[in-house]
Amino acid sequence: MFARRCARLVNSRTSVPLTSFLARARPYSSGPSYEHILTSSPKPGVGLITLNRPKALNALCSPLFTELNDALSKYDADKDIGAIVITGSEKAFAAGADIKEMAPLTFASAYNSNFIAPWSHLTNIRTPVIAAVSGYALGGGCELALMCDIIYASTNATFGQPEIKLGVIPGAGGSQRLTNAVGKSKAMELILTGKNFSGKEAAEWGVAAEVVEGGHAELMDVAFKTAEKIAGYSRVATVAAKEVVNKSQELSLREGVEYERRLFHGLFGSQDQKIGMTAFAEKKKPEWSHE
Ligand code: CAA
Q1: Residue numbers of the domain that contains 215
Q2: Annotated catalytic residue: which of 47, 140, 171, 174?
Q3: For residue 271, which of 46, 57, 244, 289 is within the disulfide window of CB 3.0 to 4.6 Å?
Q4: Whose CA is nearest to atom 12 of ligand 1?
């Protein structure tokens, strides 16, 4: 908050862009105080959310999701943040929805409260979101990763949809998103048997963009590098790129290509299209306006 106010003050008095310095210095973790997550901005333009409920292997209880959604909304509204990374610990990205919270639910209580519906908030976030997955990403944890735009997995990552073992089915989009990623036969096998799959398999099957050799630190390096790269581009272009790729999951090919073309046309109305193409012709580095 303090840093944001300072940014406005200083920016109004000088023409020197201070965004990158402030992005690094911004003390997000001293902003809203959360119980189950940590927030920080470790790299310029990058917002980091760390799931932090170690005693329950980051099981996704409702209060955790309320905090996660709040942090996502704040980063999404922040002009200085161009990419978000969600991670857990070396041992667990998230071991699923909180089974102890779910155990007493009835059909009526789940249906009337539209249980789990707030989880979809992540899919409304327009800023690109990267999941950096070490350890368990089971059930809702796997589904949370699948809702992100890019998944990086460490070699110790364990993905799976084990809900069948609890007498239920995936409830946060796993049956749809996992099937889109791996195809029907493999998704059926995974969901009907509840068997886990590794980070290496996740990368081979297209669930993860890459499996990163080494530990959690190496994984975070790769995630931050990509996040920083994305955050270094025009926000107008990165948001549009995310939007059109997501449309490919929902529209027919003809509709999707048309949607892409219209948005492509629209970008010729942005300042950053002029900035980017002029900089190319002048062999200069573009200074994006994000407008
Ligand atoms: N919900 C609530 N608590 C959980 C949890 C979960 N999903 N996963 C782990 N925990 C808790 C354990 O109960 C335990 O707490 P206590 O110390 O108080 O007993 C603590 O975390 C540590 O867990 P374990 O002792 O079990 O650790 P482990 O290393 O022996 O095993 C594990 C790790 C294999 C991940 C095991 O904890 C496990 O199987 N967890 C459940 C995984 C699962 O079934 N996830 C799917 C949930 S359903 C779902 O997500 C629905 C949906 O689609 C939205």
Answers
A1: 2-231
A2: 140
A3: 289
A4: 56
